[in-house]
Amino acid sequence: MAALTRPARLAAGARVAVVAPSGPVREERLEAGLDILRGWDLDPVVAPHVLDRHGEFAYLAGTDADRAADFQAAWCDPDVDAVLCARGGYGVQRMVGLLDWDAIRAAGPKVFVGFSDITALHEAFATRVGLATLHGPMVSALGFLKNERSQEHLRATLFEPESVRTIASAEAVPLVPGKARGVTLGGCASLLAAELGTPYARAGARGGLLLIEDVGEEAYRLDRILTQLLRGGWLDGVAGVALGSWQDCGPYDGLRAVFADRLGPLGVPVVEHFGFGHAEGSLTMPFGLRAELDADAGTLTLDEPALR
Q1: Is residue 213 annotated as a catalytic residue, yes or no?
Q2: Is the confidence at residue 193, as pLDDT, over 90?
């Protein structure tokens, strides 16, 4: 697996576009997130349809066409240095095929941040553009608005990426000990499984360091998700695995048994409680970069900073 192109870091005054590719956004939370960005001396601009509601499907932030148009315009605007997602939910898979990926590629590399449902866009950027992206907190998410660690880790990644080349979690413990090297990838486990067979997903995780998490999935459903990835050959040759948060997924003892049963036989290092995902204080994890995972130390060390 090859490393992907890194976009440039942000500087004071950078213009960042805020888009809503998935679910509807609460205006008061959006405003609070914009205030944080302004406090970082960024210039946030909100895409036209971010506060829309789909007329028929309440779980969507506006129509597929409008969400895609917002994203396309933001990415192709030469004055925009980064595109940040307002929230996840559901909806990316409905709009990702409406994007002009040739135009997005021609617009050049930019910073892209999001997680959860945004996993489908991380995969599309990897396969269609060859661009490294950031699995990180979203502008209107409570986990970002109310947690200083989450805010600071994203801010450092955006402005001073060399200061966070080693990402560590004090809570991390090895499920399978050891060290592994590879290219980072991953996201929401259920989305990775849902992307199998689509033209926007990579063929597999061979040579990769897989960083996965999820929310609201019971143990048997996570078993099904991991089993699907195993049966599809997607996990063949993976170099190592870091497990993030599993909020609202049931008692962790049951989840741990599933991870040990499904991932242990891979024979690669696996580390638990790595501190990224839907939980409070979520860390920003770069995708598409060469790194070393140390399951015993609970660290992910990037070969070079996430952004240039």
Answers
A1: yes
A2: yes
Q: Which of 150, 169, 278, 282 is catalytic?
A: 278
Q: Which of 22, 116, 150, 282 is the catalytic position?
A: 116
User: Which of 213, 217, 272, 292 is the catalytic position?
Assistant: 213
Sheet of 133-135: strand order equals 43-46, 15-19, 82-85, 111-114, 133-135, 285-287
Nearest alpha carbon to residue 277 among 214, 195, 230? 214
Note the pTM of the prediction, 2 decimals: 0.96
**DSSP element (H, E) containing 134:** strand 133-135
Reply yes or no on whether 22 is catalytic.
no
Q: What is the pLDDT of residue 143?
A: 87
Residue whose tokens read 């939910």: 89
- Map residue 237 onto helix, strand or coil: coil
Encode pLDDT of 238-264 as tens digits.
999 999 999 999 999 999 999 999 999
